[in-house]
Each structure stands twice: as C-alpha cells, then as structure tokens.
Design the sequence.
C-alpha cells in the first residue's frame, strides 16, 4: 500500500512539474477545462444531438488551446515589449477594415488574410496591454494628463470599431481600457465623477444610435412590441429559462431548445439552453465555476510582480467576468441584445481564440514569477 | 522620459492595486448577484408561468408578409400585379447539413448548380430561423417532383406565395423596374423584422424608388404547434397592411406605340405632359422581361444580359448621354435673341461653311452649297449650321450655357425614379476643373462654334430633351418630371394625388420671343424647306419640332465589334424633339435612335407615331 501511495505521489509531482515546465497554471486549467467539457455537452444538446458541430468546436478549441500554450511560454517582459507593436498593428488593420468597408459599401468586421481575421478581436487584448505598457514604469496613480492620454488611446480603436459598426464590441473594449485605468489607482472621486458624466451622456448616446440599436433598447423595455425581431429572442429565451425551474427538464429534453423555438441557441443564446435543461441548480453551478476562474485571475493579478503584469492580468480577468455578465444579463432580458457569446461555451472559434490567448497571458504571468528576496 | 520628481513607491502601489482588485471582485459579486436574482425570479418564482408557456402552449410567431402594392397606368390599366406561385424555401436552422442538402437539391434538378453559391450567400446573410426562398415560380412538374422527395429534405419546404408579375412583359420594363430576391447587400439596409416572410425587394426604377410605399407593413400570427411543429390553432393575428398601389402617369398604349416604333433598334423615347410634368412615355430599347427576374435568373442568364453589347439593362431614356445635335438650336436661338446678338428678321448669308476671324479652318454646313440668305426662322427650319456657328461665336460659350441650364440641361431633372444622368453643359470653368493637362484646360473658340449645333462636349439625356421641349411648349413654365401621379391605399381606396411641382421658369424679355422660337419649330415641319416637312402630312394636330443628327464621338476601345458592326455603330445618332398641339400643348416628346442616321427621317416618324397614339386617345 505504501509503495502504491508513493508511486501515486511521485506521478502527481511529476505531472505538476510537467505543467509547471509547460507554464500552465493548474487551477486555471482545471476551471477552464471543466467549463469547456460541460459546454460540449450543452452544445451537443443545443445543436439537436448531432456530433459534427461538436467535432468542429473541438477542433477550434484545440487550435485555441495551442495558442494559449504558446502565449504562456512568452515571458511577461516580452509581452510588454510587444504591446505597442501589437496595438499599432491592430490600429492599422482597423483602418484597413474601415476603408474596405467604405469601398465595399457595407458593414465589415474582418480582413481576409488567408483566414478571416477580425482586428477588433486582437484589440480586446492589445488595448489593455498597450495601456499597461504605458503605465509600467511610471509612478502610480497616473497624473491627470496621463489619464487624458490613456483615454485618447482607448477612444481611437473604440471609435473605429463603433464605426464598423460594432457598438457591442466597442463598448466592451472601452470597458477593458477603463478597467486598466481604474486598477492603476486613479482616485475614486474621479471614477464616480466620470461615471455620473457617462450616465448624463446617455441621452446623447441615444441620439447617435442607429434605428436598429434604438429598437433593441425599446424591445428590452417591452419585448411584445417587436415579436418578429429582437423581441422574439427575449420572449423565447425567457420562456426557455423560466420553464427550466429549479432542476431543469434534463439533458436533451428542453422543449424550447429542441423544438427550435429558441433562436441562436448554439451561439449567443446557449445560456438559455442550460437554464432550460439544467434549471436554476445547473446555471448556479456554471456561474460558480466562472467565478472561480475569475477569482483565480484576480489572485494571479494580485500576486504578480510588476505593474505591467498586474494591470494586464487584472484587466483580462475583469473583462472575462464582464463578458459573462453581459451575456447572461442579455439572455435573461436584463440588458439589450448585443452580440456577445457566452465565454467558453458558445459555438464559435474567434472568441474562443481571444479568450484562451488571454488565459495564456495569465498563465505566463503566474508561471514566470521569480523568487525575489523579501 | 524620466520622472525625476515622481519616485515609484512599489509597496504603496501594490497596496493600492490590491485594494482595487478587491473592489473589482466586490463589483463582480454584486453584478453576478443581480443575474442570480433574475434567474431565481424566472426559474423559481415564476417557473410555473413559464412552464405553462412552454409546455401547454407551444406558441410560434409566424410573420404574415404584406401584399406588395400594385402599379397602374394613367387609365387604371394594371401594369404590375401579384399572382400565386410556388416557391422552394429553406429554414437553415432545421437543415442537418446545408452543403449536402444544396448539393442533393441540385442533383435532383430542383436547384441549378450555378446558383448554389448565390443561395449560400443568401442563407448566410439572413437569420437562421427564417424561411428563405431559394427558388421562385416553380413549375408544376418541379412541385410534383419535390413532393415525392420531401422526406429526404428536412428544413426544405414548398410554399405558395404571391409572385410579382408584369402582364405587359417587356413593355415599359425600364420605367417599372423589377423585383428580385433580397440580396446580402439589400439585407444590410433594411429592417429584418419588417421583411420577415418577404422574399422580394424592388431592384431598379419604380419598384426600387417606391419600395417603402409598395412594401406595406408586416403582420404576425401567434400559432399553437404540436411536438412536430405542425400548426394546430391560430391564437392571435395581427394582419399585415398591404403596400400602397401606385398610379403612374405613364400611358401604356402610347408606351407600346413608342416601343413598336423603335422596333429592334437601340434607342429611347421620353414623353411628358408639358402642363404638369407628368411622364407619359419612358421607353428604352432593347429591353428585358422583368418576369424573368422574379422567376430567378441564373448567373449565366444575368451575365448574358449584363454583357450584351446592346446593353438591354441600360436605361437609355434616363441614363443615356447623347450629344443633342441640332435639337438644341431653338434654345440657342432664344439665347441669341435674349443676348441681343441677333434679331428675328436679321438675315445672314450662308455659303456652306463658317470660319473664325483670322483662321482658315472651315466649319462646314450639312448642306455643302449653303442655304443662302436665312433669318432665324429659316435657320431653325432648315437647320442651317452656319447661322448657329456664327451666333454661338457671337454670344460665347458661357452665356449659351446659362440659357441651356435654365432649361434644365446639365443637371438631373429630378424625376422621382432613378438613377438619372445629369448630362453635361460645358463652360470655361468646367473645362478648367476637369482636365489635368494645362493644354487641355484652355477653352478654344472652335469649341464654342461647334457647341452652337449641339456637338463637342455637350451631352443630354432623352428625358432632359423632352423636359426642355415641354418648357418651350409652355413658354417657359417648368414642372419637375414625375412618373407617379398618385398613391392609393388599397384598404380604404383613398387616393393621395401628387401635385405638379413647379421649377423656376425661363424668363424672356418679351413674350414674342416665344412666338418666334415656336414659330421656327413649326416651320421645321410646315415650311416647304423644313427638314421634317414629310412629318406634317395629314397630321390632325399642329406640330412643332426639331430634328437633330449627332456625330458619334468614339466607340469604347475595349468592346468587341466586328468590322461591319463597327461601321454601323459609327453612324450618326438620329434625334427628334416635338410637341403638339402647338396652341394647347398636351405632349412633348424626345426620340433618339442610336446610329439611326437622319434625325428627321428616322427619329421624326417615331415622334409622330407617339404623338398620334397619345392625342388620338385623349380625343381633343
């Protein structure tokens, strides 16, 4: 028996050493892995019990995981040095997309460089990295002038993405940037002040919104008004979630999802499928798993050894949480329908790559720490 | 940049940062709490309500697409209607393997192989739970064939829908336009909810310009379905509101006469009621059958239409730019009178050519031996070029351009359907702006000379010429041309009539000037030496007109013509403008026959037939 335990312990330590070698953070990997596996079951059900979409998704996850591993190998110092270049590249690509969109006469979000590439996805990581790079050797909290500069840097890509037009992504990236500034320690009074200012600017935003965007906000207030458009999504997803009750109708048994009442049930509205089939109990477990991942991210940020790593890790973690919030709040009818997928669960490769690349950065920050004398 | 007076305090910064991370975590917990409370509200508190909604009531919302408005001519003749037809529709969300399904549909002959990419693009551009038409106007045979195969194609269904039909076929195709499947580009511009269940959208001309009015308002139906999705009961219906019917000013009989007169030649006819600007005829040949677009053209068929050297899809009446030739001589004459460069009775001697002072270059008249002594009336009637070379040189290009522009030349007329070309009235400043080489920016006196007979840079559309002729007929009063004279609400039958819209009139110093110009245009037809004297024979109404023959400047280099065809395409364009009756003008018409040769001999008879067809009908 003793031998067996020893062997087990030996294997365990070998395994954990291997993970450390590969610069993988075990708690983070465990959290992500669990959500991905649960997500696969949900996706199988959401696509009507077919295996092909599942294999497709598995391939995308595989590619994304390789990218995560690759990113994790890069030391934070190198990430930092690459930041301004990544940001500049992203800006140029955004400009290209805009120009091509102008010529093509329609909305465009991607560039065709062998694969369809959305520069706005790169910006989700490049914006916080750029801001963290700017702040990394300066005394914090930043000066007012510095804050002005940072806000301008955020406004550039955000404005360009809003022009695409992709208001949802623009807002999310703006928020990621704001998180970096907040984490850098600007005074809380300033935060409250600008928060109040934003609220006051809401009517102005309404003025700039396109008719279909106004429609989405109005739809949220009264879904019955627009049962053929966005209101249909909200009505059906509330029915799906609500009818799931405490423990759900069971895997593959959700009538709303299976009978195809629920639109976009394998992508943006997959949370409603979980709600219907696994009930309040099921979604609570999922949200708990998400919170554990976010908590680990915050821990990595707090334990990081330099300003750049801290700010970047904090911003990535909070943004990850914010995606979860926006998606679940949208599906439950709390916020207007904006096209934000449920992280790690919704079908689709683009967001998966960005997410896992972000986690790769977290892992790099955590596993490249040096033992410093206290 | 070093920060000498700001020393980094690592410990304090770390404390501050950890503080902020805590705030973020706290914020995250609160936000998550809100979602959880919402979920508890939906799933625990109101679970029964939603369970009832999902279990007892399987409600599906079905769109009820509106019926597209009909289009009538000025005598209530139906020009565009909706007829029931079968179409193949696909609901992507219910299809297990889209590529495989499309391939198999094609293999069984229900979908053309070359249309697969187009269909795939269409599917990608629309919502996955919408039913998307992939083939319109199916034959009975195809319907029967699919009925047998139906079980093998989940997500694909045959639906009876109303299809757009044009009972007159190719007649007035360029004025009416056509509808086609909603493309990815259209999709970007419209509200998907408003077009739920609709498979067509107006593509060009009237169908496009009045898309909003014709489309109507979508309705919806809440239906109870069983486990297999079959409709069991209709719970609630919000009826769709049909689109508005359009009442055109077009007269279909005159339109038919115009197209028949043009025959198989390339050309265009535009006719306007001078009293209000209503467009009576808008013909462009060769044309196309809009019905074939509704049935769904294959890519090859569409390419064939697009690459045809005769350009059947090109609306010559609105977009064709032609040198007006001698048809603008009455307007140049008016400009001369207004500039006091000439008086109506002043005579000049035409010896068959004109030379600028100090130059030996001869600008030749069409009649080599010359017209002899001619006054203004003779010059217009016989289309004496020398008279107008001299006159143009006298008044100058910029003064000439002012008058031409007063008649609306050089800019779009503002017709309610488009797109329309503005043509070109050249001026010195135009030439400066539009040429890169300084050599080319100079305005040469010779260019003024040939502008006097409507050659050189000057370009006009047939609609502009008809519009300008209507202005002469009305002695300066101008109306914006319009094709739709009213809209009818199909439910209440109430008609909203569009009032004629005035444009700034052409003012002259004394009204006799109009008599002189119109008199000259009558002489074109009734003077023994008039260029179009053959046209007035046995006319029931007094005509006024002007012929024109415009040189073809060049032929596009990249187009493929054989030698014989090239010679044909280098021939002069034949033009004719006319209005009638002179003392109570009811119709003004402009005709162009591409490479037709003689204006009075080829285009003139077309104008006469159009005028006769219309005036015989309105029975003065």
Sequence:
């Amino acid at each position: 028996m003793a031998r067996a335990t020893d062997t087990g312990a030996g294997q365990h330590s070998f395994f954990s050493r291997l993970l450390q070698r590969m610069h993988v953070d075990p708690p983070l990997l465990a959290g992500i892995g669990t959500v991905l596996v649960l997500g696969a079951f949900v996706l199988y059900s959401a696509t009507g019990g077919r295996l092909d979409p599942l294999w497709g998704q598995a391939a995308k996850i595989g590619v994304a995981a390789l990218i995560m591993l690759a990113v994790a190998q890069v030391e934070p110092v190198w990430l930092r040095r690459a930041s301004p270049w990544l940001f500049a590249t992203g800006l140029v690509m955004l400009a290209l997309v805009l120009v091509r969109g102008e010529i093509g006469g329609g909305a465009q979000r991607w560039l065709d460089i062998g694969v369809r590439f959305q520069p706005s996805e790169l910006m989700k990581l490049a914006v916080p990295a750029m801001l963290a790079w700017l702040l990394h050797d300066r005394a914090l909290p930043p000066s007012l002038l510095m804050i002005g500069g940072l806000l301008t840097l955020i406004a550039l890509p955000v404005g360009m993405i809003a022009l695409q037009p992709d208001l949802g992504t623009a807002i999310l990236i703006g928020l990621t940037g704001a998180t970096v500034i907040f984490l850098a320690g600007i005074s809380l009074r300033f935060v409250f002040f600008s928060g109040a200012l934003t609220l006051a600017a809401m009517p102005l935003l309404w003025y700039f919104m396109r008719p279909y965007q106004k429609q989405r906000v109005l739809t949220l207030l009264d879904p019955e008004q627009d049962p053929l458009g966005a209101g249909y999504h909200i009505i059906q997803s509330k029915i799906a979630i609500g009818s799931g009750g405490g423990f759900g109708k069971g895997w593959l048994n959700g009538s709303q999802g299976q009978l195809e009442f629920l639109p976009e049930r394998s992508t943006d509205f997959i949370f409603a499928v979980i709600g219907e089939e696994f009930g309040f109990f099921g979604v609570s477990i999922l949200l708990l798993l998400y919170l554990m991942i976010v908590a680990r991210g915050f821990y990595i940020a707090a334990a990081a050894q330099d300003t750049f790593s801290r700010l970047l890790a904090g911003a990535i973690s909070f943004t990850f949480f914010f995606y979860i919030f926006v998606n679940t709040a949208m599906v439950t009818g709390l916020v207007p329908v904006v096209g934000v997928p449920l992280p790690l669960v919704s079908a689709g490769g683009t967001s998966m790559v960005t997410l896992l690349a972000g986690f790769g950065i977290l892992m790099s920050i955590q596993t490249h720490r040096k033992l410093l004398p206290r | 940049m070093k920060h000498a007076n700001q020393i980094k305090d690592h410990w304090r910064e770390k404390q501050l940062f950890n503080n902020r991370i805590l705030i973020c975590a706290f914020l995250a917990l609160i936000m998550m709490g809100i979602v959880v409370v919402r979920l508890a509200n939906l799933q625990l508190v109101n679970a029964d309500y939603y369970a009832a909604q999902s279990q007892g009531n399987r409600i599906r919302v079905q769109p009820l697409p509106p019926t597209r408005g009909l289009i009538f001519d000025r005598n209530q003749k139906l020009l565009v209607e909706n007829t029931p037809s079968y179409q193949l529709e696909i609901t992507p969300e219910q299809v297990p393997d889209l590529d495989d399904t499309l391939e198999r549909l094609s293999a069984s002959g229900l979908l053309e192989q070359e249309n697969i990419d187009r269909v795939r693009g269409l599917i990608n551009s629309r919502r996955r739970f919408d039913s998307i038409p992939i083939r319109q106007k199916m034959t009975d045979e195809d319907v029967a064939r699919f009925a047998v195969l139906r079980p093998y194609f989940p997500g694909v269904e045959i639906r009876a829908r109303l299809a757009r039909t044009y009972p007159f076929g190719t007649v007035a195709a360029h004025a009416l336009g056509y509808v086609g499947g909603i493309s990815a580009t259209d999709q970007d511009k419209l509200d998907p909810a408003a077009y739920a269940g609709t498979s067509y959208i107006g593509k060009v001309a009237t169908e496009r310009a009045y898309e909003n009015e014709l489309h109507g308002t979508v309705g919806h139906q809440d239906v109870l379905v069983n486990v297999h999705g079959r409709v069991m009961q209709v719970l609630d219906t919000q009826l769709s509101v049909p689109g508005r019917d359009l009442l055109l000013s077009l007269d279909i009989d005159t339109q038919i006469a115009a197209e028949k007169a043009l025959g198989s030649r390339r050309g265009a006819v535009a006719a306007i009621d001078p009293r209000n600007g209503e467009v009576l005829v808008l013909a462009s040949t060769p044309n196309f059958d809009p019905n074939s677009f509704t049935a769904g053209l294959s890519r090859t068929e569409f390419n064939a239409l697009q690459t045809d050297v005769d350009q059947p899809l090109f609306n010559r009446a609105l977009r064709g730019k032609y040198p007006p030739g001698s048809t603008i001589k009455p307007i140049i004459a008016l400009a001369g009178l207004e500039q006091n460069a000439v008086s109506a009775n002043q005579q000049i001697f035409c010896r068959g050519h004109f030379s600028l002072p100090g130059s030996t270059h001869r600008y030749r008249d069409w009649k080599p031996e010359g017209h002899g002594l001619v006054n203004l009336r003779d010059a217009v009637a016989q289309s004496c070029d020398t008279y107008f070379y001299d006159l143009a040189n006298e008044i100058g290009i910029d003064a000439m351009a002012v008058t031409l522009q007063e008649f609306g030349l050089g800019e779009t007329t503002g017709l309610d359907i488009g797109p329309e070309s503005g043509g070109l009235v050249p001026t010195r400043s135009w030439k400066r702006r539009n040429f890169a080489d300084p050599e080319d920016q100079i305005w040469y006196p010779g260019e003024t000379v040939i502008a006097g007979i409507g050659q050189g840079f000057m370009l006009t559309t047939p609609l502009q010429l008809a519009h300008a002729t209507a202005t002469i007929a009305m002695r300066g009063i101008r109306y914006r041309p319009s094709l739709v004279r009213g809209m009818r609400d199909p439910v209440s039958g109430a008609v909203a009539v569009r009032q004629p819209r005035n444009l700034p009139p052409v003012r002259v110093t004394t009204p006799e000037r109009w008599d002189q110009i119109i008199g000259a245009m009558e002489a074109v037809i009734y003077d023994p030496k008039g260029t179009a004297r053959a046209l007035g024979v046995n006319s029931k109404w007094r005509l006024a007109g002007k012929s024109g023959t415009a040189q073809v400047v060049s032929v596009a280099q990249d187009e493929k013509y054989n030698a014989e065809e090239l010679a044909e395409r280098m021939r002069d364009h034949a033009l004719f403008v006319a209005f009638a009756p002179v003392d109570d003008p009811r119709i003004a018409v402009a005709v162009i026959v591409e490479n037709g040769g003689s204006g009075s001999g080829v285009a003139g008879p077309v104008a006469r037939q159009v005028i006769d067809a219309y005036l015989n009908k309105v029975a003065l």
Notes: Chain A touches chain B through 65 residues (CB under 8 Å). The mean pLDDT of chain A is 84.
